[in-house]
Amino acid sequence: MHSVADLLHNTKFKDPLRNGSLEELEALAAGQGLRSALIYLNALVPHRFTAIYRLRHKTLYCTSAFDAAQEISGVDLAEVPYEESYCQFTLKDGRYVTADAAADPLLEGHKYRDIMQSYIGMPVLDENAQVYGTLCHFDFLKIEAPPRQIEFLKSAARLLAAHVSRPVGGARA
Fold first, then answer.
1. C-beta of residue 157 within 8 angstroms of C-beta of residue 122
2. Residue pLDDT, tens place only, 15-74
3. Number of H helices, E strands in the chain
4. Domain-by-domain residue ranges, the chain?
5. Rounded CA gap, 82 and 130, in Å?
6. How far apart (Å, rounded) are the C-alpha atoms in residues 92 and 95?
7. With respect to CATH, is domain 4-163 assigned 3.30.450.40?
8. Which position among 12, 36, 49, 146 has the lowest Cβ density within 10 Å, counted as fewest Cβ atoms?
């Protein structure tokens, strides 16, 4: 199993051509928690940020995040009103992907269109198949993600659903 130090080292050598492993992702989430799983996922894509947001009362709260530049923490990405988020499109449509927000007609007039240029999001459901929130990659730059990484994120969202309300080590709260 990877240590957090190993995972952080790997993000310095991002490899969007590398295939992710659901088995590795599961082992990290179960043994070291969601942040380690997000670090692993982030190393597979060119995007700077990877995060899980929880939807509660029309607000999305960041429950775990990773910044590959290690400049911004989850606290800095703490919350976004639902109507101001890109996550709203993920939850309405079952996924949302944009490599160039400025050219995306869906984002016409959106508050963050000129700031957050690329986004890939998948819904995360809880153990009762209810919407928990989203798992997403995003960046200030225009970035086209490899299609296989988009599909891997979809699988990762299903896998991580079992871990979103579970503390490290697997015991339920």
1. yes
2. 655 778 899 999 999 999 999 999 999 999 999 999 999 999 999 999 999 999 887 755
3. 5, 6
4. 4-163
5. 17
6. 8
7. yes
8. 12
